Batch of 2 targets.
Target 1
Amino acid sequence: MKNIIKFTTLILTMAFFVNCQEDDAEIGDIIAPSNLVITAEVLGVDAANPNGDGSGFVKLIATADNALSYSFQFGDGLEGVVPSGIDTHRYSIVGLNTYTVVVSAIGSGGIATTATIQVDVFSSFDDLEAKNLLSGGVGSSKTWYLDASLPGHLGVGGNIDIAADAFWFPSFFAAQPFEKCSDPISDCLCDDEMTFSLDASEQLTFELNNNGQTFFNAGHQAVIGENAGEDACFDFDTSGVSMVSLAPSSFDWSIVPDPNFVARGTTMNFSDDKFMGYYVSSSSYDIIEVTNSTLYVRTVDALNPVLYWYHRFTTTLPSQDFNSIYNNLVWEDEFDVNGTPDAAKWTYDLGAGGWGNEEVQSYTNASENVIVEDGFLKITAKADGGGYTSARLKSEDLYEFTYGRVEVRAKLPASIGTWPAIWTLGEDYQTNTWPGCGELDIMEQKGQDKNTVLATAHHPAVSPGSGDSGNTVLTTSTTEFHNYTMEWTADAITFLVDDTVYHTVANTPDLPFDSDFFLILNVAMGGTLGGDIDPAFTEDTMEIDYVRVYQ
């Protein structure tokens, strides 16, 4: 249907003069713009939609003699410098609203002429669910913090490039857990409070409290006359309240080269130049994901628009002191009865075949490979002629669970080429082919490095391959018992050794970590992680003191 264009024009000229000169338009080299004219075209106007089709788009055009640039205040709390004088602005407050647009034509010497125009615009866009999740609902407020416990709580990447899908999400840099909290230069970011509130008219507001210190990106410190040469905190209070308008994302998230990824597609625009803790001169944030307690956003660097900054937030102030939310012991094996493992709790994988990882052992349930003895489960890998035997226990069909804390106290084999693992697998693996079923490795150790342990989440977005993995140095892993722990929630999967967090994976709806998994304990030989086996190897054992699951 052909649009009927609606024009509204107002001419108002004001010149600002210096030193009480005569009212001349020209004072030396200073020229005041004149004949400022503003036109507004509400897009989508027709007989049935006299104030637009609900998209909220308005094309604003400002012209003036002797103007070098134009500054627009759009009347919805947003503003911008528009050198061409032509801007298509999207008004996203739902309903029919009248906005007063203020345009300043800027001439030589910075002298300006200002005019206003009123525009009636109808917008039908809303995302009430996002408003409720951000604020807690009408009449409520909710405070958010940078989720410093997660990798990528602050990250930067390039724009999505279909030909090179590495250039999406924080592919250039992703902060490790608490990386931006342990350095005095940047730790002011971690205690910022960001509060969303929703009033009875469903107007969303945002309040930043950064305790008088702002964390500035290195490229943006000139706005306060500083230059630290790196990202840094400065005593500069940017706290305050702003209005938040929601609009459909201007970015087409459907082109993301990940079939399992779906972004929300809603953009938050903050008035009065407010921002979410980290200063990159941007006040617009795409909501990638929002739940009751997690928020993931992206904003564009205003000075370097090829850079996209990513922030993760949570409603609980993160602490480096780990406190589990699970305290009810629901399943355990203390291995206090000598003999074969409890058949009500454990079954076995048997046989050879590489197990998908080029492993060289054959799994058995023989007592020489697996036994409960002296209060410990002992899984022993043995040289057997020209091959190797070992054992792999699992709780499949006996105990399976969704979410919780798993604690396993174990001492690992020391021999080169052994590959011990404490892990979980999605129970639907037979119909949902790996890695679609998901895999969570609570502890693995490479055959060539007995001073480090690993934790990994395998899922379609990162596997096959290395998975989403983290590691920590543990030089006594083969000589002492240590607690290997996984805390699995709907929002995050956290891996610890002796109650110290060393790897965290954000759990999002597109990942396969929201259904039942079962436990696996094994010692493999060789393969992709075990590597070359010591030619003198005879046998070695992983000892497990207990396995406990809390919910």
Target 2
Amino acid sequence: MIRFAAIRPSRRPARPEPRGPRGIIHGLLACAIIVPGCTAAPEGGAPEGTPDQTHVPFERLVNADAEPHNWLTYSGNYASHRYSRLDQIDRSNVGDLRVLWAYQMDDGIIETTPVAVDGILYVTEPPSTVSALDARSGRRIWTWSPEMGPDVLNIGFPRVNRGVAVLDSTVFVGTLDAHLVALDARSGAVRWDVEVGDNAIGFSLTLAPLTVKDKVIVGVSGAEAGVRGYIDAYDAETGELAWRTYTIPAPGEPGSETWGGNSWETGGGSTWLTGSYDPELDLLYWPIGNPAPDWNGDVRPGDNLYTDCLLALDPDTGEMIWYFQFTPHDTHDWDANQIQVLLDAEWEGEPRKLVVTANRNAFYYVLDRETGEFLHGREYSKQTWAEGLDENGRPIVIPGTDPTEEGVLVWPSLQGAANWFSPSYSPRTGLFYQPTRIMGAVYFKADVEYVPGQPYTGGGEQALRGEEASGAIKALDALTGELVWEFPLLSPPWSGAMATAGDLVFGGDNEGNIFALDAETGEPLWNFQSGGAVRSGPMSYEVDGRQRIVSSAGGTLFVFGLN
């Protein structure tokens, strides 16, 4: 079967109406809704030296690399390099890093990456709070929390939020109860609030949105509840739904033949991680999650498109331009919700626009990002389910590796060799830095029946732990996936990596270490013991001419610098 193809656009649903203000803003006057002539006072006002109004037009996002003192998107730039061009902190002085300030959050798992805009950090706190912080001192300028009851569903994932998006003078956040909210960047006041999905049947938002042109693009969580996934785009000014593209085709739509019976109705395919964007090609790249039920594939015969895929979409219409499926008929929960990295390089003597990714299934892929053509793939972590990839990139599955009632041992575990946490690509070294999980699991299959709002998984797994599980930061040749060096970790990581122009790679581990490695050799150069597990992606910004490194651990966001 062809692994990439042109697809017609999905049918658009009815447009939801934006809702009124919902949530609590601390430190503001009574006028919570932004209207002409209404002002609101944040806690102590904005930091000295910042502009009167945060303003990040689309052109600034496109040219984010030109202002490395800021960090304007979840992954640092549209290409998702998670690479800082700041070089004040380098191999010669990184050992002198110290904590300059720390921001304590409420209890919960911190997976946020701050967005830094002109002296202000916009961060999320679990599960769906947004705070604006003075980038110099960490002083809180304002904070907003949605009003959510204790019965909010989060089936199959923790109560987390990974960050915000900015566009013009607005900050956008998704909430655990499946709302997308637009906040005034200066005050935190609610501009609009729309319901993206019905939380009562399992929909939720945990990702950082992506803003492209005049739209805010989000994906949904919920595959473990048997939802039918989709990607949405909303008008940034009004909150009106611009388009919706379903990841599970309905009968008669391209790909529907890969689902048996009515299994498409509860097919999963959630879209819970931020995509990438190529302004030159004007293509949006979005990773798609696992099919449902997770471990019992008997009830959904076929390849189950477009689960475990990368989709290339027209950002104006949601039309699917091409797709590539990494794991057809997945029965191990190896969704493709990993960051997709865009790079331009010479391939077989010709310039090529590429998209590369280290997939959860333990294979590294190089694709043509104009067409979706498979160019190269190789194993980058221990796996026992496939003999390799064929010439089209389809895995050659080893018989007997599907889950059984008795259980079958397979590498990697359901959390994969990679997961949501970000890799980094350095244009200086040409290396792709991947936090890698090395863990197997015994997979079980069970009978399953769909009940709205309940787990719909069809089995489970028992992961290997202790000495049978480990991790590493692996530096891979970005064009081949070949291992150049690795830095071993005591346990499988849950935190991302960031490379810098100072030839450093920052990362973290479950044991509380925030560290810096030599980007060329992997040699450890600096370490800070935070006292809590690191579950976030590092980032960097500059304020008053001084570079800062940011990483979260436990319940605290730490900001490091030389002075």
